[in-house]
Specification:
Blueprint: E1 2-6, H1 17-27, E2 31-34, H2 41-53, E3 56-67, E4 70-77, H3 84-111, H4 118-125, H5 131-140, H6 147-155, H7 170-179, E5 183-186, H8 196-205, E6 210-215, H9 220-233, E7 236-240, H10 266-272
Parallel strand pairs: 1-2, 2-3, 5-6, 6-7
Antiparallel strand pairs: 3-4, 4-5
Helix pairs in contact: 1-2, 4-5, 5-6
Length: 299
């Protein structure tokens, strides 16, 4: 079984890297992508544990980017080439931006009457503290009934507690991933604000070369739509549960909400879409993914 979208407690998941590997073994996941938000911390820590457990790890990351003023998440895969050091330096800049936003977010929540300190949120989120950790605090302190209410009423982009964080534009995020020799995939497209089919020329024009067709939030109709878009635009296909542990108890590794069925040849097709190592400099403009039947289940 393959699952290319998971999170550890190095970002907004609840499992430590070692716990995530044990969960992968229990669930029968043989190939796992760790895609923590704006950090490689979970992947780095899991490498040795995964090797001992016989789980193949795919180096991944999930970036928050901006498109037309709205947040769009971008998955990067196979970021282990010669230019990874430069990419990691850039990621550190994104982490600094997150920290600065958190200072202002804590202040904003106090303005709204909530006794929330940055240090409390950081105790939950450590180096990659984000809005989910502030939401958990609000639930723990009884200010809201659940995480969804925390976001709907205070933390989402349109809510009154939201504060701006400098995020890279979508095109910049794609370029950084591609320059590092990786695959740039549109994460959970069902969550993208706007008409995804109508946005595809712009996204592909920015260098996007994959789309996450298989995801726990996708029903059959959505999956089929994104597979059709992949075929139409020559994109590679990625897929994963978006496992977070206790934060999303209904989402399981490998199977999502019971609706996730990732083709066994998906990983092989992704690797076929990578350019050969050393074939071009890191600043090369790469072609889109190849293979018109990418990601289709075999009959």
């Amino acid at each position: 079984m393959i699952d290319l979208h998971s999170h550890t407690n190095e970002s907004d998941g609840t499992c430590s890297p070692a716990q995530l590997i044990r969960e992968a073994v229990r669930a029968g996941v043989e190939t796992l992508g760790i895609t923590d938000h704006d950090t490689f911390g979970g992947y780095d820590q899991a490498l040795t544990v995964a090797s001992a457990a016989g789980v193949e790890l795919v180096c991944g990351i999930e970036l928050s980017t901006k498109l037309h003023g709205h947040s769009v998440h971008l998955l990067g895969y196979f970021l282990d080439g010669g230019c990874l050091a430069e990419f990691r330096e850039w990621v550190l800049e994104m982490q600094a931006s997150r920290r600065e936003r958190n200072v202002r977010l804590a202040a904003r929540l106090r303005e709204l009457g909530f006794d929330i300190a940055l240090e409390e949120a950081e105790a939950l989120g450590r180096g990659m503290t984000g809005r989910p950790h502030f939401a958990r605090l609000m639930v723990q302190k009884g200010y809201v009934a659940n995480l969804r209410q925390a976001f709907d009423d205070y933390l989402d982009e349109s809510a009154r507690g939201y504060v701006y964080r400098r995020e890279p534009q979508f095109a910049e995020g794609v370029a950084k991933i591609r320059q590092a020799g990786g695959i740039a995939s549109l994460a959970h497209p069902v969550r993208v604000n706007g008409n995804v089919p109508g946005l595809m020329p712009e996204l592909c024009g920015a260098g996007l070369n994959a789309i996450e067709a298989y995801h726990s939030d996708h029903g059959e109709r959505e999956t089929e739509l994104y597979l059709e878009l992949a075929e139409q635009y020559g994109l590679l296909v990625t897929g994963g549960s978006d496992f977070h542990g206790e934060v999303k108890p209904g989402v399981k590794l490998g199977t999502g909400c019971g609706n996730l069925r990732i083709p066994c040849d998906l990983l092989e097709r992704l690797r076929a879409g990578l350019r050969p190592r050393g074939s071009a400099p890191c600043t090369e403009t790469l072609p889109h993914g190849r293979g018109s039947d990418q990601g289709r289940e075999k009959p």
